[in-house]
Structures are given as C-alpha cells and as structure tokens.
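Closing statement on the guanine sub-project.
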Amino acid sequence: MAQIIDGKAISAQIREEMKQEVVRLKEQGICPGLAVIIVGEDPASKVYVRNKKKACEEIGIYSVVHELSEQTSEEELLALVRQLNGDERINGILVQLPLPKHLNSDLIINNISPNKDVDAFHPFNVGKIMIGDYDFLPCTPAGVMELIERSGVDVNGKNCVVVGRSNIVGKPQAMLLLQKNGTVTICHSRTKNLAEICRSADILVAAVGKEAIITADMVKEGAVVIDVGMNRNAEGKLCGDVDFAAVEKKASFITPVPGGVGPMTITMLLKNTLKAATLKK
Ligand code: GUN
C-alpha cells in the first residue's frame, strides 16, 4: 500500500517557512507585492484568484486583484500590464488563464516584465529553465518537485515518465526532472505504447486532464505516482488522472486529488513572488 503524499501538510509547512521569510524581508524594507489580473467571469478562475489573494494575505504578501470585464480590449489589458511593470509596489504579475477568446494570451504574457513573471510563462523565463539558470519555476511542476523531494524520493538516475506535454506542466516538468538527473520520457496523445512506457517508470507524473487514464496495469510495483489531473467525474466530484484506489495498492508513494499537487501550486506562486521581491532590477 502506497504512502500518501500529503500536499496540504507539505504546503502548510512551506507557507509557514515563507511567513518567516516575509518578516525578514519586511525588516529589510522589502514588502513583497503580487498583482493578479482576471478578465471575465469564468467561475473556476474566480475561485483560483480568490484563493491566491487569500494565500498572500495569510503570509503577509501585499496583493491587488484587477477584475476586468469580459469585453476588455487587448489595448486596455496591455496598458494595465505595462502600468504594473512600472509599479514599484508590485513584484509579481499574474494574468489568470484562460483569457476570453478575443485576447491573445501569448501577446499579453510576452508583455509582462520577465522579472515580474511569477508564472514563469514568458519565453525568456521558459528559455532560462531550459538552460537550468532560472529565477522562477512554473508553479505546478515546481510544486511536484517539492512533493517528490520532501517525501525523500531521489530522482537521480530514475526512469521518469511524464504523461502530457503542455507548456504549463508537461514540458517544464520533464526539464525539472532532467535537471535532477532523471532519465525522462514524455508521453502524449500520439504515444503508441503508453501503458508499456508508463510501466517502465520509477516516477510517473500524470498531467493529461482525463479521469482515471492511468490504471493499475500501467504502474510498476513500487513506483512513485504524482497526479496533476484536476477533473470532475460523472458525479461532479474532483478527481485526478490516476485510478487512485487501484494504483494506491501498487505504488510506493502517491498523491491524492484533491490534497496532493493542488495546494502546492499557490504555494509555489508565493515562493516566486518572494523571489521576485529580492531580485535586483
Ligand atoms: N490557469 C490555470 N492555471 C493557471 C496558472 O498556473 N497560472 C495562470 N496564470 N493561469 C492559470
């Protein structure tokens, strides 16, 4: 039976550490600040943004939420981003995705100052991650690495399989595992022998967005299984990409959904915001 990796507890521990760091920064006259921009009324995005603001308040980070109407033009949004780029109280800028269809997310992200890009979505920061010389890591993959490391799992020399190749999770996740000397395979919708490749994994990261796509027959006995999925099942309940009940019996470590990777994402955003506050501009 697998040991459950408790993302909520690990997250609480890291936030406690960061609270102390905020106190130290404020003693040096540095007050970390985060600006979050949300455009439109997407209910899930509104919940995420509310949670981000609450998390900032809990550890003493100054935060501002800019709620813009669905009809906001690209020029208006760009003007706000540029204003925040020049705002000394703001160290981190996060534009909540997805944006309404008439807005070009790439264009908006490319206009966030790279040293305030706490999502690490700007191509400059994406490139820095590729080289291994970075200030910010994207929040979800960084959270996964914390969960793995704080569970005492050593990535060095392990077979790591990442299922999913998104720019937000799969691709950067593979780079971070590679940096820790994992032997990394990325699988995706066109992968031919998915089950077989997954069975070779010592560390399996599922980031697909499909309920229970990772079944027990795809998991090696004793593997570490990290579930990044956030799906709703037929009853509307939150569930991951992994068939948890069955895989739990084979894995050595497993993250639950909810309570695994989810809580870590905001924690890593807070960490990036503190990092941004200490960067020389
Ligand atoms: N929407 C869903 N996840 C994220 C994230 O990590 N960052 C931003 N900006 N938007 C998101």
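The pocket of guanine is lined by residues 94-97, 119, 139 (CB under 6 Å). With this model delivered, the sub-project is considered complete and its resources will be redirected to Aim 3.
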